[in-house]
Amino acid sequence: xxxxxxxxxxxxxxxxxxxxxxxxxxxxxxxxxxxxxxxxxxxxxxxxxxxxxxxxxxxxxxxxxxxxxxxxxxxxxxxxxxxxxxxxxxxxxxxxxxxxxxxxxxxxxxxxxxxxxxxxxxxxxxxxxxxxxxxxxxx
Length: 139
Hints:
Thiol Ester Dehydrase, Chain A; five-stranded antiparallel beta sheet
């Protein structure tokens, strides 16, 4: 069942339900293929190691896609993601459990909800990506 939010049912400080993702090497390879990302750092472990990384890296756009999933899962079918800003701060590798969180930071009378987003590595709490979104919900 999809939750339908309205401007009257959301408050500043509300937390979006946490979303966890653990990217795999296969997922990174496939994501590189479908996005035409040919940078070897995302699918060639030897190349990534030569660049100084412990393994292939999660693509910046995949970090963003995880945060989009957090927003769209919360807003449901009636909502609309109207703005998204994401900044990748730290790398993640296959097997890292990534925890996506969101907090409502503002609500406009017309139904626009502003959300602060973070994605952290579970193992050490490092912020891999952060950003903000604006979501249109029912008035």
